[in-house]
Amino acid sequence: MEKSVELQERKKRKTFREFGVLMVLAAIVVVLSIASPSFLNPINLINVVRQTVEIGVMAIGMTFVIVSAEIDLSVGSIFGASAMLAALIIKSGADPTLAFLASIGMGCGIGFANGFLSTKARMPAFIVTLGTMQLFRSVAYGISGGQSISAFPEQSLNSWVFQMGGNIGPIPVQVIIMGVMFVIAHVVMTKTKFGFDTYATGGNKRGAMLGGINTDRVKIVSFMLCGALCAFAGIISIAYLKSVPTTAGTGREMDVIAAVILGGAALTGGRGTILGTLIGAIIMSVIKNGMVLLSVPAFWQTGFIGVVIILAVLLDTWITQSGKNK
């Protein structure tokens, strides 16, 4: 009976968090609509949704990592290095499908390394991914010779890979892809054994181990999933921009982590939802778009994101403590 009541309370708190985040998004939209008449322009709104895609896809993977009580600071570098690898393969005249597979493979490989070192070598994920963040940022620069990659062969631009950068009517294909991925991730997180194991691992690792869950495997798979999705986001970026700058992915780790935390996930693990992450990713894109429309200097934009992260954690802490005190 007590467990049933506790589960109901957790469900209420989760719903309250998601509703609260949704209200924050609505408030931001109202403020920006008043501050900048251009914000509600249909073209601008499409740009906002398009800008959500890369952060959103990467944030799906980060949700699994954070719910399992880990962190991945290398996501921006995985994005950049994987995109650069794919771009170089396409530039050479090879089949874009090969470039896609190589990029996803690279993302999975980096994710596996992060997960293996964090679990089997017992190194803190913060340190491991801080190291791989620096390493693969250098790899991205090294394999490209410090040059941006563009001007792909015409036959490659007609392939299915680049079709992801197009539209179906007024709707960008990449937005449809992101929507499908969020639905799949939601099902995995809420309806499958792996999703249950991820929550259990992050919520109480020792209890999960005693319950027969291979917590190391859960964490390694979560890191691999995160790496693969970061690489996929890099491919989407190539499809849309038709180029890869040497700075691709720089700073994206903060945007992605902020989106997941804004969505209600706890850095201590065991809590977070895919729906919350989606709302968090939209908030990040809306804020960034609004600051550009309001001509906020770039250095203040970064600082504002930091403030948003701090406020989100404070709000989450307050909600959690309020729930415990009832």
TrEMBL record:
Pfam short name (any one): BPD_transp_2
UniProt xrefs under InterPro entries: ABC_transp_permease
Topology versus the membrane: Multi-pass membrane protein
CDD domains: TM_PBP1_transp_AraH_like (cd06579)
Compartment annotation: Cell membrane
PANTHER family assigned to the protein according to its UniProt record, in alphabetical order: ABC TRANSPORTER PERMEASE PROTEIN YPHD-RELATED-RELATED, RIBOSE IMPORT PERMEASE PROTEIN RBSC
Name this polypeptide is given: ABC transporter permease
Species annotation: Christensenella tenuis
